[in-house]
Input
Amino acid sequence: MLYWLFDWLQDGSHVPGARLMSYITVRTVVAAVLSLIIATFLGRGIIHRLQRMQIGETVRDLGLEGQMKKTGTPTMGGIIIILAIVVPCLLVGDLTNIYMWLLLISTIWLGTIGFLDDYLKFKYHNKDGMKGKFKIIGQVGLGLLVGLTMYLSPDITQRQVTTVTTDTAAGMVETVDTAGPDIKSTQTTIPFVKNNNFDYASLTSWMGKHAQTGGWIVFIIVVIIAVAATSNGANLTDGMDGLCAGVSTTICAALAIMAYLGGNVIYSTYLHIMYIPGSGELVVFMGAMIGALIGFMWYNSYPAQVFMGDTGSLTIGGIIAVYAILIHKELLIPLLCAIFFVEDLSVMAQVGYFKWTKRKTGEGRRLLKMAPLHHHFQKEGINSIIQPHARALPEPKIVVRFWIVGLLLAVLTFITLKIR
Output
């Protein structure tokens, strides 16, 4: 809205300074500041409203230090994050951009699923909420929507930027041709490989002339898996004050840098990375999301005044997955979002090992003191295979250490793109 207003002021009235809003960097900063203001100032009112409605967290006594003190803390705080993302994007985002719309739709889509889950928990006063199969159906539906849109939309392309070396009297001169054709492609970015590109169509080369179509089918399957796994991983990570929001902020900053470089033909050519026309607008969205997460942590840091609930965690994980997919970095998610996936795997390993040992010996044993993984470091006095005698750590220390690991993973992700 404001983007169009300033565009009109620039073209029609020539108002000094109106041209600033045409710069992605300026709009990103504006979006971040607006979302931070919305999250901090509007957040307080939403928290008070949730308290009056008695929408509080139902906590089971699992023997964790300080756990029962969290009973009744307002949940559904993800509403704050969603509002702080959507409003700035509608104000300063380019609403003719297909990438912006896909992310806004993903935000509302997953926010609705998470809200329904939180509402059912509140309504029936238990931790069950929405049945798992319905969450999966919603996540698969979003994955199909994103994948098919990327396949069918003419606005989502890649451009082949070529470097030509010519022999002149002054020596070898390199020139860059940035006017190559925009093409539909199933190429994506992978680490440790020269040019960092991998084509899903190479997996279906046996299909002959239909190999490209087969590549898109494989790509859509990958999209569905990425959305479901990352969304659920973020959901499991949201178990301590400030944990999910803090880890996600680092991930979002890394993805924003990737989107900015990949959406700029000069930087992408210089760095030899994939150029995706129009994807620079994604940086504006991510500016709003980073501002929203930081603003939310104002109230969610230890001791939390509000929890994001599934309304926030499912949305955050899904946005991260869709964002990475849109900039063709989905195969970097396992490294960049390793904390999410380790949390996922810790639950699966804990349950699987317990059932297996119970079937074999009649007595179930634990790999971890408690799952997800962050609670393992918080639990005292439970025999387990991994760190059986380790002392429990206070919650703030665990959270900060996870933040540090998340930062190291982000740095490592960028390093792997240069190691070829």
Remarks:
- The chain has a mean pLDDT of 85.
